[in-house]
Amino acid sequence: MAFILASASPRRRELIELFHLDPVKIIPSSSEETFTGLDPEETVKRTALSKARAVQPLCEPDDTVLAADTLVFLDGRQLGKPHSREEAFAMLRALSGRTHTVCTGCAVLSGRREACFAESTLVTFRALSDAEIDRYIATGEPMDKAGAYGIQGQGALFITGINGDYYNVVGLPVCALGTCLRQMGILQA
Question: pLDDT-based confidence at 107, cuts 50/70/90?
Fold first, then answer.
């Protein structure tokens, strides 16, 4: 019996180590399914579940699969990973001086059992100058992050406050995930 992390994210890989699950295997999901027209939490839950279901057939029947999806939402608009420098700039300009929501959906599949939940965290940015945004983009950090920033990296310099789980913004709501894994009997209470 193995614990499968259906993600290539190095941040999620580091965070899953907090649970001391053994063995942990990494099988990134190839699911490209995206959902629109739903509220933020339902969007990330459905995407996480799609990712987990895409990986489960590659696993042993008694393995546990965890998939997650993190998105940034501003005024109800989804900000995914930027595809260009210009898109990253536009996202960071929009977040400047504002509060946005970071939602992470998690899906845990274990045998025939399935749990799916979402966690939301509010993040507030200070006002940013165009020069600051340009310097940050030049680091390359924004290009593989939802909302074009990483709270665990240089993006932390822009954040005046958060309301909710810090690790949710990193990409895995560890407190809520721990509760879920205990309720499913995967972690000891």
Answer: very high
